[in-house]
Every structure is written in C-alpha cells, then in structure tokens.
Design a protein that fits this description.
The complex is a heterotrimer of chains A (about 375), B (about 200) and C (about 375). Chain A has about 375 residues and is mainly alpha-helical. Chain A has helices at about 10-45, 60-70, 85-100, 120-140, 145-175, 180-185, 190-195, 195-210, 235-260, 275-290, 300-330, 330-385; strands at about 5, 10. Chain A starts with a strand and ends with a helix. Chain B is an alpha+beta fold. In chain B, about 25% of the residues are buried. Classes of the chains: A mainly alpha (about 375), B alpha+beta (about 200), C alpha+beta (about 375). Chains in contact: A-B, A-C, B-C. The interface between A and C is large, with 45 and 48 residues.
C-alpha cells in the first residue's frame, strides 16, 4: 500500500525524505545558532573581551534573542528596488545552502539522501548561491550593493576552480564521488597525510568561497558597507546570515570529511561516529574564526591575482600528482612528498608575492638609517665648520 | 607569511590570556547569570561628574549664597539662580547674609568643565561622581535646588568631601606648624583681588 | 567635466567606453572617520574623480571663542581635535602666554609635556586601531583601545575627565598632579610599551597589511610640502620637520629623541612613522619624569581674570596630526577679538583628491585612514 509513487519515489521513501529534510533543517538551525554564539564568544576571548554575557548563562541564549529581534524587525524594501528580485535573492542563497547539506553525511547512516555523485552535486549547488548574491546586489538598486554583487561573482567563480580541482584529486584517491566512499577510503590513513597541499588549497579557497576574513571582500564592512546585504533588514537579512553560517559549516564539514577522516575515530563507532564528525568540523570552524580574528582583508585585485596565479595552477598540480601516483601505483608516502613539495612551492610563492613589500620595508629602514647618519654627519660638519 | 603566522600566534596567546583574565568588565552588574551584583563604575578621586550643590552640615543650610559667579563664568550658560535674605542670619545662626533661593542646572547642556567649582568663593558647588543620568523625559536632566543638593549630599557622604577653602586653610596652618610659612602669616588676599567680569 | 573625466579614466579594456558611476561615500559610512563625505566617480572599482565635502561637524568654534573669556575658551579647544585634547589646550595656552609674556612654572611645563606626549600616544594608538579596522583587521583595534584606556584612566586621575580635560590654564595648570602620579606613570609606561609592541606584531608587518598599504597613496616630499602637509604625514614622505626639534617650544629642547622618517611617503610609511613616534614619545615621557622638578604649578595670575594686552600672536605646536597653529587677536578685553586655527587635519585632508585619483575604491578607505583626520578639527 506504500508503493503509491509520489514524484517518482514510493510514499514511504517520500515520507523518510521529508522527515530527513526536517531533521536536517532543525539540526542546521541549531548548528547556526551555536556558531553565532561561538563566533562572538571566541572573537571576544581572542580580543580579551568577554563576549555575550547577559542573556542566559555565558550568554548562551544570545543567538535566540538575536533571531527573535531579527524576525520582529521591520522588513524594509527600498522603493526603487526590483521587488521580485529583491525578495527572491535571499531565498536562492539560502536554498542552495540547504541543498548542499542534503548529501553531506554526518555518519554512514545520518544523511538525508546519499548520492553516488555527491561531490559533483555539492559543487554544482555551491555555484547557485552566487546567483543569489548578484541578484541581491543588483535588485536592491544600491551602488554599494551592485559593487558587492559583482565582487562576489568574480571572487566566488574564481575560487570555484581550485575547489573543483582539489575535489577531483580527492575523488581520484577514493575512486568515487560518493562522500561515504571517500570517508571509507580514509580508513587506513586520512587524506590529510597524503594531500596536505590539497587540504591547504581547499581550506583557503573555501574561506574565499564563504567570504570569511581575509577574503570578506564582497561584503567588506569598511569599504562597501555590507555589499549585497546593504539594503536588507530583519528577516531577509537573517536569511542571508543563516546561509552564510550554513556555508561556513559546510566548508568545515567538507574539510573534515574529505581530509580528516569524517566520522572515523577511535572508541566511537556506528552512529556515534557523528561525535567525531562534529568535533572535527567545529575544530575547523574554530580555525576559521581564529583567522578572522587575526588577519586584515585583501584587495579585490590581489585576491583575483592570488586565485589565478597561485591557487589554480597549484590545484592542477594536485590533480597531476595524484594522477601520477594512481597510475604508477606508487606507495602512499610518495604522494605525501610530492604534495609537500607543492605546499612548499605555495609557501614560497605566497612569500614572494607578499613579502615583496616586507623587503621594501627592510630597505626603507636601511635607507632611513643611512639618511639619519648622513644628516647627523652634515650637522656635525656645519657645527664644526662654524 | 611568517608575520601572519606570528600574528596568529599573538592572537592565540591573547586568547589564552583572555580566558584567564579578560580586560573588559561587565557593567552595571558583575557576576554570573545566576548571581548578579551591582557594581558601580570605579572612578578616580578627581573625577568630574555632574555638578551638585553642597550642604553645610554645621549650620544646616546650603553653602551657596546665590552670588551667581558660576553662572557668569559658565561657558555654556547652563545654570540660573536667584538669592534671598537668609532668615537664619537674622536669627543669628548663620554668618551668611544671603542664601540661595532657587538654582537650576540643565545637565544636558553642562559640559563638565569644572569652571564653576573653580570660581566659586563659597565652596558651594562641587563636581560629584555622578555620571549616570539617562532619562526618558527630555527635560528630566534639568535639576532644581533640592535635586542638586541631593546630588551634592550624596557626593559629600560618599567621599568625605572637605570644602576647598578649609583644606587650603588647613594646609596653611600645617605649613606654619612646620615652620615654613612663619614669614608670611597674612591670609591670602585672593578673593579680594578677584576681578568681576 | 564629464568628457574630461572620461579622458582621464583608464578603462581596463583599451578603446572601450568607460562606464562611470557616481558613488556617494559618507557622511554615514563606517570608514570616513566621522562625518566626512566624498562623492566619487568610479569606473568599476577604479576611482576616476572625486569631490570631498566637509562641514558636517561645523560648530563655529572660532566664532564661539570670540564670545568666551580666555579661560573658557580652553573648553572649546578641548573639542577641536577631540582625540588629542591636551595638545590643543597646550597650543592655545602657549599662544595666550606668549601674548602676555607669562612665565610658566617649571613643573607645570614638565607636566604639560608628559601629558601631551601621553596624549600623542593615545591618539596614535587610536590611529593604529582605525587603520586596522579600515584594512579589515578587527583585533588590533581592541588591543590598541586597551592601551588607550590605560592612558585615559591616568588622565582621569590627573584632570578628572577622560577626554575633555580642561586642565591646562593660562600660565600654569589647574591644580598640581596627584600625589601618586610618578608611581602611576612608572607603572603605566611598560604596559603601554607592551601594548604598542603587541599591535605592532599583529598588524604592522603582517603581509596582507603590507600588501594593502605599501605603494598606495604615495606622496612625494615635494608634493607633501606643496600641499602643506605637516606632522607624521609629512615625515612619512621623508621631510625631517618636527616642530619639537625645528622650533622647540616649552621644554622640548631638553629631551633626547629621534624624529622617525619614512622614505616612500605611502600609506604604510604614514602608519609606521606613527608607530615609531609612540616609542619616541615614551622616551620623552621617561626623561621628563626623571627631570621633573618639585614646586608650584599654579599660574602667576592667580584667580585674576586673564586680560592680555592689545596685540596679536601666532603660536604653533606639534600635535599628533601636525602643526596646530593658533592665531589670536586681542583688543585688551577679557575676550579674544579673533581666534583663527590652523588645523593640521584640514591641511592634510586637502590632498585627498591628489591621493585618491586613479586608485582602487578599496584603497580610498585605507588612504583616508592613513591621513588620520579628525573631523572635529577639520570642520571646527
């Protein structure tokens, strides 16, 4: 009796999927709430502040208070905006953010719908969110918004390529695009050990993908005042906010799944593996917050140069070395060495690119000292001359 | 690269220190969520909060005689006062011939410069340590005589305020006792010299 | 005008028609340091032309001075450059003292120098904080505010107010420094040194920060002099000109300190010169504390009304932002006849068009931040 097909699946399956989606929605909302609290608290402690303290013990109820405030706020739609686009943009962003999570597994079983082409699906949907940002920037009829939307398009599309290439190299190692298979492939050693270069590229590109410092260029608060989100308020803005945190956690989860072994870990097995998964993902999130609390922001041209001159070639390099390793069936440590060599290459390139100014500084110092000595000498000469 | 890593190290150290000993403190209450304690903001001795009028406890009347020196010297013209004959003087309790009748300071206009305290000859006005006077009403920060006296009384009780003139006199006496000021025993004729604007 | 701009604009595609957009930045913008407003013509992300607008914070301070007695005017000077209050008071008091030919007690001079240098550090710390924020780093600002907070609580112990002190008087100080001042200051100096160093480690040599600031908004020495730059902005271009050395006022000729110079005159140099200046200020404070004599600080005028003779005077002082000049005309009454101020921020800001043309939109924020303007002083 449960075999009545709805949208091509049986009623039972359909029911399970709906239930799974609800559970995913609930879990993600909880994670987002925890992340907002964690970010404020971590940044506070990092800056020797207290962070939220007034709402609940240790300010734990702060995200709830925030969300109530945001929902109750007046939702202002600018009169000159393109109403339909303005309304649709946050939905596109948040739906694509949620859709990614359909196929990200917490454990072997804790997944709404596992897809054989899971990684492909994730990358495909990650790009859809950009459309929402561009539409938001354009639809709000604000020049800062437009600038932000265009910056977002440029930035996110550039950083898609390294992410795709790294994912390809991981898929080559696991010989599957199914995330479960990728995690199972790491049973003997995590891919972190053989692909450190891939991890670094994926993490940096991921930061750029979710617009975290030092790549928070498309909503740079001190320059374009929030970019695409500038005209949004209340519930609409909170939807963007939700999507941003879901994406951040998605990147953290993907790093955990693709490189640190996902739910695999000592002592806990079966569905309890989700504890390991959460620990790893939250650990990556903490690193993201830590970086946010330390580094300044890049400029858009420097960001693009970094993407196309450093990240893209190196991500191709990861694919190439993985292919060589797979083809000749060398032992795993060879890949580690090749990857590390690549990593050193990244370091040197970044060093060269970034340290140019620092060398100039040293030079300036030297010249300054010389100048000072020179002026002192001339002063002495004039005084003695008198 | 290296300096960025160094920066990451700095923030990590800062986090550890921040967990142990944060720099900021909670306001206006401290403590945990379960137990909150009212903690007034610590201020220094010389802190200049809103001006209040002081109360002469010996004679039981305000120091202020309503001479309007402070009003003339206020850069923002935020005060006004009137004076009257002092009934206590006629009865012989007080040495003040005139006494303040009404006094009003608009604390919204006050810029806390302390000039009024400096020019006052009768120790009648003091910069209290009060600095929290947010109100809902627009004119609630206009303070009349009783309110100002209350402000000043509170300040006197809390800090053990000594009138500046008395303090100066005492310092002079100490000096004489120590043998430094024997040569110039005449009192400072400053007030007599004070030119009126 | 439009055609002229079109010619100037450098479109990324050769031969393509430049598409210009008029972008209004400020007065409500987080990075315009108050209520400064720029109208920018941008071609994509490049600034083609701009028009600065000032005056949103105009309070008519110069005119107000004419209606106040000489002692009351000090409160107005507190509010000109509201980041460096003591320095402003110092410049004004020195101007009136010069007009009256007043001698300031030795101890008062030393106290003034110490407080002014502390205020310079506080001001530069705020500069580093906002520079970090403009470049997108939020933590240095918190660290710098911690140091500034420490200095301000010392100010509170000295003058009774954290910012609007009204502590200097014509010919002296309002009252003597607190009894434990030496102890407070000796405790404070290493802490401030630590704070400055920490923000230095975190921000100044960070590669991203360097990449953002180096070779951005370059001002050559000739241009800097032509535009009337003073203070750290001028010294960043490599011109060795510091009033404390060039025309020593107060007791500055008794201290041994260096004048930090930049060579390229870019935004990073302007940042780094200020960072180095903080160390130099610490040196000055240390020496002043050792040399400070005991004694009287009160003005020889006592509580008499200040009535300078007829005449006019111009006095300059080295503020954290540059030369702060006070031109004063007295007609012999108790109120100044005319007060004219030469605000360093205003003169430094006048080069904004020269600096911003043709650079990235994101850099406009950084360059504006590196000039370290205070709108209270620009608009007066």
């Amino acid at each position: 009796m449960l075999s009545i097909p709805i949208l091509g699946v049986s009623l039972a399956d359909f029911g399970w999927i709906v239930l799974g989606l609800m559970a995913m929605f609930g879990a993600l909302s909880g994670i987002v709430l925890s992340l907002t609290w964690l970010e404020r608290k971590v940044l506070g402690r990092l800056q020797r502040r207290l962070g939220p303290t007034r709402t609940g013990p240790m300010g734990l109820l702060q995200p709830i208070a925030d969300s109530i405030k945001l929902i109750l706020k007046e939702d202002i739609v600018p009169s000159s905006s393109e109403k339909a686009v303005f309304w649709a943009a946050p939905l596109i962003v948040v739906i694509s953010a949620f859709m990614i999570w359909v196929t990200i597994p917490g454990t072997h079983a804790a997944v709404v719908k596992n897809l054989d082409l899971g990684l492909f699906y994730i990358i495909a949907f990650a790009v859809v969110g950009i459309l929402g940002l561009v539409l938001a920037g354009w639809g709000s009829a604000n020049k800062y918004g437009t600038l932000g939307g265009l910056r977002a398009a440029a930035q996110l599309i550039s950083y898609e390529i390294p992410i795709i290439m790294v994912v390809v190299s991981v898929a080559m190692l696991a010989e599957s695009l199914d995330i479960r298979e990728v995690v199972n492939g790491q049973s003997s050693y995590p891919y972190l050990a053989v692909q450190p270069l891939g991890l670094v590229i994926f993490f940096i590109a991921g930061l750029a993908e979710v617009g975290r410092t030092p790549f928070d260029i498309y909503f740079a608060e001190s320059e374009i005042v929030g970019g695409p989100f500038i005209e949004y308020s209340g519930a609409h803005w909170s939807v963007f906010f939700l999507a941003e945190y879901i994406n951040t956690f998605a990147i953290a989860a993907l790093v955990a799944l693709l490189f640190i072994g996902g739910w695999a870990g000592p002592w806990l097995s079966g569905n309890w593996g989700i504890v390991w998964f959460l620990i790893k993902a939250y650990g990556v999130v903490l690193v993201i917050f830590w970086i946010r609390g330390t580094l300044p922001r890049l400029r858009i041209d420097q960001l693009m140069a970094f993407a196309w001159k450093v990240m893209v070639p190196l991500s191709f390099l990861t694919v190439v070395i993985t292919a060589i390793y797979q083809f000749y069936d060398w032992p795993a440590w060879t890949l580690t060495i090749m990857s590390l060599v690549g990593l050193v290459a990244v370091a040197i390139i970044i060093f060269r690119k970034m340290v140019g100014p620092a060398n100039q500084v040293a030079e300036v110092w030297a010249r300054q000292q010389a100048l000072r000595a020179q002026t002192a000498a001339t002063e002495q000469r004039t005084t003695t001359g008198q | 690269m290296i300096n960025s890593l160094k920066g990451l190290w700095v923030t990590l150290v800062s986090t550890v220190n921040g967990l142990r000993q944060p720099v900021t403190q909670q306001y206006p209450q401290t403590g945990t969520f379960w137990k909150r304690v009212d903690t007034p903001t610590p201020v220094k001795d010389r802190f200049m909060g809103f001006p209040g009028l002081t109360w002469d406890g010996k004679i039981d009347e305000p120091y202020c005689t309503g001479c309007m020196v402070c009003i003339r010297n206020c850069p923002t013209l935020c005060m006004s006062a009137t004076m009257k004959d002092n009934p206590a003087h006629e009865e012989g309790h007080s040495h003040r011939r005139k006494i303040v009748d009404s006094f009003e300071i608009n604390l919204n206009r006050c810029i806390l410069c302390g000039i009024c305290v400096e020019v006052c000859n009768f120790d009648a006005i003091a910069m209290t340590h009060e600095h929290e006077l947010s109100n809902f009403a627009r004119n609630a920060a206009r303070m009349d005589l009783p309110a100002l006296l209350e402000l000043g009384q509170d300040f006197q009780d809390k800090t053990g305020w000594i009138p500046p003139n008395e303090r100066a006199k005492k310092a002079k006496e100490d000096e004489i006792e120590n043998g430094d000021g024997v040569d110039n025993p005449e009192p400072a004729p400053e007030n007599a010299e004070l030119e009126q604007a | 005008m439009a055609e002229e701009r079109a010619q100037q604009s450098s479109s990324p595609v050769a031969g393509a028609e430049p598409v210009e957009m008029l972008l209004n930045m400020g007065p409500q913008h987080p990075s315009t340091h108050g209520v400064f407003r720029m109208v920018l013509w941008v071609d994509g992300e490049k600034i083609v032309d701009l028009e600065p607008h000032i005056g949103y914070l105009h309070r008519g301070s110069e005119k107000l001075c004419e209606g106040e007695q000489y002692n009351q005017v000090i409160t107005l000077f507190d509010r000109m450059d509201y980041i460096a209050n003591f320095n402003n008071e110092m410049a004004y008091c020195m101007a009136v003292e010069k007009l009256m030919g007043l001698e300031v007690p030795e101890r008062a001079e030393y106290a003034r120098v110490i407080l002014c240098e502390l205020n310079r550090i506080a001001s530069h710390l705020l500069f580093v904080a906002t520079m970090g924020l403009d470049a997108g780093a939020m933590t240095p600002s918190m660290f710098c505010f911690r140091g500034r907070e420490r200095i301000q609580s010392l100010f509170e112990a000295v003058s009774g107010a954290r910012m609007m002190h009204n502590y200097f008087r014509i010919g002296g100080l309002k009252e003597d420094l607190p009894e434990n001042f030496n102890q407070l200051l000796t405790d404070l100096l290493p802490l401030i040194h630590e704070d400055v160093e920490e923000s230095d480690k975190l921000l100044t040599f960070n590669e991203i920060f360097l990449a953002r600031l180096k070779d951005v908004g370059v001002m050559s020495a000739e241009d800097a002099i032509d535009f009337g730059f003073t203070g750290p902005c001028l010294r960043a271009s490599g011109v060795n000109y510091d009033l404390r050395k060039a025309m020593p006022y107060s007791v500055y000729d008794r201290f041994d300190f260096d004048v930090p110079l930049g060579l390229d005159g870019d935004s990073w140099d302007r940042h780094y010169v200020r960072v180095q200046e903080m160390y130099e200020s610490l040196k000055i404070i240390q020496q002043a504390l050792e040399q400070m004599p005991e004694g009287n600080v009160a003005s020889s005028l006592g509580r008499r009304l200040v009535r300078p003779p007829k005449g006019e005077v111009f006095m300059r002082a080295e503020n954290p932002r540059g030369d702060f000049g006070v031109y004063l005309v007295s007609d012999g009454t108790d109120k100044p006849y005319r007060v004219k101020i030469r605000p360093p921020s205003f003169c430094n800001l006048s080069a904004i068009k020269h600096l911003l043309k043709g650079i990235w939109l994101a850099d406009s924020v950084v360059v504006l931040g590196s000039l370290d303007i205070v709108l209270g002083e620009v608009d007066r």
